[in-house]
Amino acid sequence: MSPTYYLTTPIYYVNDKPHIGHAYTTLACDVLARFKRLDGYNVMFLTGTDEHGQKVQDAAEKAGVAPQSFTDTVSQNFRDLTSAMNFSNDQFIRTTEPRHYESCRHIWNMLLEKGHIRLDKYAGWYSVRDEAFFTETELVDGKAPTGAPVEWVEEPSYFFALSEWQQPLLDYYEAHPDFIAPAGRLNEIRSFVKGGLKDLSISRTTFDWGVPVPNDDDHVMYVWLDALTNYLTALDWQNDGADYSTYWPCDLHMVGKDILRFHAVYWPAFLMASGLPLPKRVFAHGWWTNEGEKISKSIGNVIDPLALIDKYGLDQTRYFLLREVPFGRDGDFSETAMIARTNSDLANDLGNLSQRTLSLVVKNCDGIMPALPADISGDDAELLAAADGLLEKVRAEFDQQAFHEGLRLIWDVIAAANRYIDTQAPWALKKTDINRMGEVLAVIVETIRQIAILVQPVMPQSAAKLLDQLMVPDDARGFEHIAGRARLTSGIAIEKPQGVFPRYQEPEGEGA
Ligand code: MSP
Predict the structure, then answer these.
(1) Is the pTM of this model over 0.85?
(2) Would residue 210 count as lying in a domain?
(3) Cα(9) to centroid of ligand 1, in Å?
(4) CATH code for the domain of 375
(5) How confident is the model at residue 509 (pLDDT cuts 50, 70, 90)?
(6) Minimal-distance CA residue to ligand 1 atom 8
(7) Domain that holds residue 384
(8) 459 CB contacts (<8 Å, ≥6 apart)?
């Protein structure tokens, strides 16, 4: 039986259309999901939309539409983004689905039966933008620490006994040092929990766009309890579904740094209180700025992922987002950096290498794939060893969500292949040693074959084009066909190659 891997994105609020931040979180998961599938895992990759709460209700009111039809429209934008970005999610969950209502009631009842919920009164600050409660002392200049406005709320509320989970949470972090990543974030969470946990308000009465609390219709569940439960709903946990036993506990919850607390404190506490196993890892990535500025609707500098795809290409965008910034840190988007990655890493380093090599095979070998040397030694051995060694190294980086490092390692080998082609100069060997020319070309093609297989998770379409040009059959594109476990097939005919990574040219009149 194949090993399993369950990974999730946050579910996105449907108060607005998707932007680069949403695309980024899901992209990272998509790359990992594809990587794991190629590496022999049975993967469940979940994304979706978070459709309840005051923020969404307010947005619907502002649009003058009923919440359900409003969320139908906006949720569709997120589904459209998954196809535009070529995401390979296995499910798209919506919190307005009946199965999710059932699941929320189920977790509520478990918590209630086990004595972790009591009815009381909430009096304190609430930030609709963050959908979070704050105490007076947490406010900064009268606002939430995120800068969001807060309003005073006083209402009857059910509370979850979060305070009881302070020590169990600290013990869990201690025993599972990989649970929260990157390490700096673990420290933040640890000191937050050490600072003391207060019981958490988990229901609201002043609006009604949410899952009704069982046996008390005056209350709807707090949107974060509702939202986090989606990770169980998708596995049909509420019905003891087969997916639940196959995929839970979750291998990875990918989140942005702003919502780590909900995933690394509240969620594990809900799960412990319900007697359910905890996810294995929560990774918090950083935030993008645009040309050095915070991205915000009021500044009007929101980056639309569809516009990036239009301008630079889909795989170029996917590559850039994961290569440019160390995953986990904040990063800055700039046109200059985007163009540099597109033209130098993709068009020059990988694109030209492949285009030059295959053109030589077509021109100098009658389009018949040459064979590797019978005895591999010297420079040939060095390059092939570097290519063969990549899978293990890249896997280790991707398992830590260090996508930028994994890609850097791959591009190191691409650089080595470019040095090799320049030193060996196969074009000059045509007249002096045609046999050696074939061997040199085969060593490069074999390197490109391995690289094309390895970059499939990040650039699925472009990698497929490269592999098509190399005549690699569909069933020979998994990771069991690299790392020295298989070699390129010689003696087959290939066609005249078409460039896979076009250079980005500034449109006339816009300057460089
Ligand atoms: N609905 C909640 C999540 C519930 S999960 C049980 C939510 N939704 S959100 O739509 O506001 O944000 C989703 C994700 O987008 C977060 O992971 C957040 O970090 C990410 N981003 C939003 N803006 C971003 C940037 N500028 N840069 C990178 N990611 C950012 O929170």
Answers:
(1) yes
(2) no
(3) 9
(4) 1.10.730.10
(5) low
(6) 12
(7) 335-481
(8) 315, 318, 319
